[in-house]
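Let us work through a complete example step by step.
Step 1: write down the sequence.
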Amino acid sequence: MRQSTGEKVFNFFNVVILTALMFATLYPFLFVVFASFSDAGLLLKHQGFLLKPLGLNFQAYQLVFQNPILFSSYLNTIIYVVFGTILSVFLTICGAYSLSRKNVLFRMPITFFFIFTMWFSGGMIPLFLLVRNLHLLNTRLALILPAAVSTYNLIVTLTYFKGIPDSLEESAKIDGANDYTIMFRIIVPLAIPVIAVITLFYSVGIWNAWFHAMIFLNKRELFPVQLILREILILSDTSGVMGSAVSQGEQIQVGETIKYATAVVATLPILLVYPFVQRYFVQGIMIGAIKG
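Step 2: predict the structure and record it as C-alpha cells.
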C-alpha cells in the first residue's frame, strides 16, 4: 500500500521514539551485566555510561556461587514458584469457570466482591494477624496461601471463558458430562493461551516477591532469593556472600560488583523462560481483552 507523506512522517518518528525507548529500557540491564563482570576498583572510579566491562573479572560471580545461602534461597524460591503457581492457576481456573457459567447462583455479587478487593484491602496489619492466627508464620504456606488468587488474573481468565461458545457445554451435558469433565476436558484445552498467560504472571510474581517473606519469615533457611537480594542491594549486607574469602579492605570494592552479580543471577531464570512463553502471553492477553 502506498503511504501518504503524513503516514511516512508518523512512521519515521514512531520508529525513532520506540527505538529510543528500547535502548532506554535495555541499557540499565546491560549496565548491571557489564558492572558484574568489571573489576571492583575500576568500577568505583568510573563515572558516566558503562558500555563494556571494565577489566574483565569473575571474582563477584565466584563469591556469589560459593555462598551456600544463595543456593538454599534458590531452592526455596523454586519451591514457592512451582507449588504456588500450580495452586494459584488451579484455583483461578476453578473460580473463573464457576463465575462464567450463567446458571450459577449469586454469580454477579460474588464477582463484585472479587473486583472490590482490587480497590480496597484490609491492609498489612490485618493480613499479618490473619496469617499469625492461622499458625502460618515461619512456614512455606505463608508465602503461598495468602496470595493464591490474583483478581486481575481471575478477570482475564473469566473473560476468556465467557468467549467460549455455550453450545460446547450444552453438547457435553447432553452426552452426560458433568461440570468437572466439561471444565478439564473441554474448557481448559481451549483456554491454553490464557492459562499460559496467568501461569507466567503468577510465576514471575512469586519469583519477584519479597515483601511477604520479609514480614512472615524469620528463619533464614526459608528465605527466597529475592529477600537475600534485598539484603545485598538495599541493606548493603554482602558479608554473608564474601565471608572470610575477602579481606576487610576489599569488602567495599568487591561488594559493589557482588550486588550486580547477585542481581543477574536472581533474574536470569525469568529471562531464559520468558522468550518461550511470549507468544502465549501476547495471544492470551489480546483474546482475553476482546472476548466477552
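Step 3: interpret the result. The two ends are 33 Å apart (CA to CA).
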